[in-house]
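Researcher: I'd like a structural prediction for the single chain below. Treat it as a standalone chain; there are no partners to consider.
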Amino acid sequence: MMKTPVNNDASANKESSPKVLQRYISRREAIEAARRFHSVDGKRVVVRFTMGQRIEHYILLISFTLLGITGLAQTFADNPVGYFILNLFGGIDSTRVIHHTAAFIFGALSIYHVAKFLYQFFMGHRLPKMMPDWSDLTQLVEMLKLNTGLSQKHPRFDRFNFEEKAEYWALVWGTVVMGLTGLMQWFPVATTYYLSGGSIPIARSFHKWEAILAILAILTWHMYHSVIKKLNTSIFTGVMTMEEMEEEHPQELAYLQAASAVADNRSWPVMIEVPLEDEKEPEPVVPPVEEVKTPEPVSSPAEETNNSESAAPAVEQKKDDTENPKTAGEIE
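Model: Treating it as a single chain, here is the predicted structure.
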């Protein structure tokens, strides 16, 4: 029975080739991907955040800072620092006005953000990249292995990594808690119409400690990842270099490159292949080591003559022993 030969080279290439994600994209997605590549001062950059997203961040930054300063000043009014801030803003009444104004701006920004989310989901049929998925858990495990020295493989992050998503959803949670408890304190009469009077001090306690937790999270977690660990100014400039994208968000960069490459296609949708891991460099082929045979020494004619002469008596002696064998008795 004949066996079909196995092509070892083909199977090896298949195993060494990186994993890819195949997906269909529309013409709009391909054009959007192509428009995110720009050139600034001779450097090729990628648009990370649009102008609208950057404006949202500016408003969030200013309103959150005002809320934190004026809120802590009212909470710790007996402290010299809190007392100084209250006087700096013109007293307790004006500080409350600033606090409520910043809260209104923060709330309006949150409503706008949720409305944009719903529009993209229902009208644009897009699931925002901030939604958690299974890859966040696997990348968390990979990052833990990398930090503990158990692996040398760095996770390939998409548009947002698991740290950014965790911070985003912590902000969403904090916004809900701070908003509800803040409104309860802002309108205590309306609150006690539906709830008991004890709900006001409970809301004040939740509001206070959630504010402290949020400020500490911004000063430690957010500042560490955005400034101390590596200075990332893309939220202000809107762009990242190709090298920064390759290091921080290689999965998103791979998608953008694959999608922009088919922007001039005529038939839609188009299937693209996005690599899910770094391409492995082919290992150098080491040729097999051949056994080198040592050549036998070549003797000179004079040496051959001497060897033949010395061997002749031995041959004659052996011949005599063969022709005249002796018995054991004769030898004795």
